[in-house]
Amino acid sequence: MITFEGVSKQYPDGTVAVDNLDLTVPTGHTTVLVGSSGSGKTTALRMINRMVEPTAGRVAIDGSDVRGQDPPVLRRSIGYVIQQAGLFPHRTVADNIATVPQLLGWPKKRARERSRELMELVGLEPGHASRYPHQLSGGQQQRVGVARALAADPPVLLMDEPFSAVDPVVRGGLQDELLRLQAELRKTVVFVTHDIDEAVKLGDSIAVLRPGGRLAQLDSPERLLAEPVDEFVEAFVGYDRGVRRLSFFPARQLPLRSDVIVTAGETAAGARAVARRTGEPWLLVVDTGHRPMGWVSTETLAAAADDHDVAKLELVGYGHIFTVSTDSLRAALDAAVLSPAGRAVGVADDGTALGAVAQTELGSAIWAIGSDDEHSTAADGHG
Amino acid sequence: MAEPAIAAATSAEPLWGRAVEAWRWGRHNLDDPVGPLLAEHVLLSYASVLIGLALAVPLGVLCVRFRAFYAPVLGSVNALYAVPSLALFFLLLPYTAFSPWTAIIPLALYTLAILVPNVVDGLDQVPHHVRQAAVAMGFGPLRRLLRVELPVAVPVIIAGLRVASVATISMVSVASLVGLGGLGGIILTYGFARDFAAPVVVGIALSVALAFATDGLLVLAQRALTPWARDRGPARRRGRAARRRAADTTAARAGEGAAA
What we know:
The complex is a heterodimer of chains A (383) and B (260).
Chain A: E1 2-10, E2 16-25, E3 30-34, H1 41-48, E4 56-61, E5 64-65, H2 71-76, E6 78-81, H3 93-97, H4 99-103, H5 108-121, H6 138-150, E7 156-160, H7 168-185, E8 188-193, H8 196-202, E9 205-210, E10 214-219, H9 221-226, H10 231-237, H11 241-245, E11 261-263, H12 268-278, E12 282-286, E13 292-297, H13 298-303, E14 322-323, H14 329-338, E15 343-347, E16 353-358, H15 359-371
Parallel strand pairs in A: 3-8, 3-9, 6-7, 7-8, 11-12, 14-15
Antiparallel strand pairs in A: 1-2, 1-4, 4-5, 9-10, 12-13, 15-16
Helix pairs in contact in A: 5-6
Chain B: H1 3-12, H2 14-28, H3 30-65, H4 70-82, H5 85-96, H6 101-124, H7 128-137, H8 141-171, H9 183-192, H10 197-225, H11 233-259
Helix pairs in contact in B: 1-2, 2-10, 3-6, 3-8, 3-9, 3-10, 4-6, 5-6, 6-8, 6-11, 7-8, 8-10, 8-11, 9-10
GO molecular function (chain A): ABC-type quaternary ammonium compound transporting activity; ATP binding; ATP hydrolysis activity
Domain ABC transporter (chain A): 2-237
EC number (chain A): 7.6.2.9
């Protein structure tokens, strides 16, 4: 457990970075410090490993004041992941990972073995061990950064905007990876970000800091989105917090229509019959492997010759899809909003189409959440 | 010597004739002045550069740690650089007489004007996040300097060494005016003094060859020391820029060296 008790940091020029912060970071949980620039979130993080010294108050790990330890010694017991990875350019991946074990004086062989273990843990190929950081992609570098922080198996892991320098797709992958690692390792993680979505995805609890370094709200992600304490927090979490909150509800509860699917090879006449039977203005065309190809409208069907293959008609892109078993209502809603047909395509884990859901059905599902909000304990479907 | 043959060659192909003449003279005098003077040249220039480096690294580190020192230190080494080498050699004569130090001390001091800014640039270009990461991993200040900052600065420092060593090899010859010039001695004593072209050509050719060989050695040293920088665009560009900058600083001095 990490505790901040009345912690402040005032610089000689009078700037206050952190103002009377009281915060408890429970052991084995991920606590996200979130705030705009100037909210003191990084300063607060760095007080834990004494890269910044508070001007008032006390920071303690498991009850003992961090100032009781020599800074380099203290830091070797705390993992640290920095933005842009901060890898040592002159050391190989394996040596980068073995940095702290080497500082701790582990025998060479053991440090090497530990490097290998960690590369596997964070999903790096063993062949990368003898490469240099600049030979890796941004995402791989960040994985090395995480492996290096975990090398000496520290109970506490500090992460300072670790994923903000990589592109959104890679970032998503790294976030998933961190969730997986954390489920396995149960470290006490303090994570700094300015991205509320990242905070909601990764945090067991979120501390929102306001400019001037004061704590605005400390809560679970769901509570933060459902009940921001004031206008500042509400503005910070975004006026679309209602939509964001949908990420806590699973998409699998949605009614999917599979009768609007036609398979490639079906004739236009056959498809017209399906459209008539279902009364739907759009049909989803899938290939013979049952993967979505696109939407076909009843107008296009009406204009086509009877024996024309539906797959060869003019199809409208299906946009983005959601995975029924793992995605949230938010992903489904997003897919529906972006779909030219106004319908979201739900797929199984293997990418085959299960069916489509129209915006009206999504609306009912969302309304249902709102109506039983008082008793709901929506905890699954994280992300 | 076959005087008529040389005369004929000179009139037909003057350059070729000179080269042949120089080659013969050089071979004939390899044991006596050429070999020992080449060795002296190597000793004087390498010792100067190495001593210069040994001074430049701590000075550069000091300037990076305490920024306020940088301007005065840079001003001093540049002012030193502006003092004509000949004057320094003569100034030192009463103290160090005709020992090699009379040449090595001024030449080592001259290298500082190139090496100190290179050490500072090299340390400055260690990315901030790398330094921060080193602090956060638990490196103390000295270990951080020795294991992270200086190794990362090596390409820029070697770029400076390349310029400094070529400039020094060229400047050593000036010291022949106080009897300590390595190959300059061949040029001065055997060439100009006796109005004889062959020793001048030999002196110049060996001096240039030594500069090339030294530069090659440094390139090899860099490849061996920094395998991580080998195919790294930005670092190489930085190295090149540093070398260009250093080359600008040395332009005037190199002119003086060449004139000797």
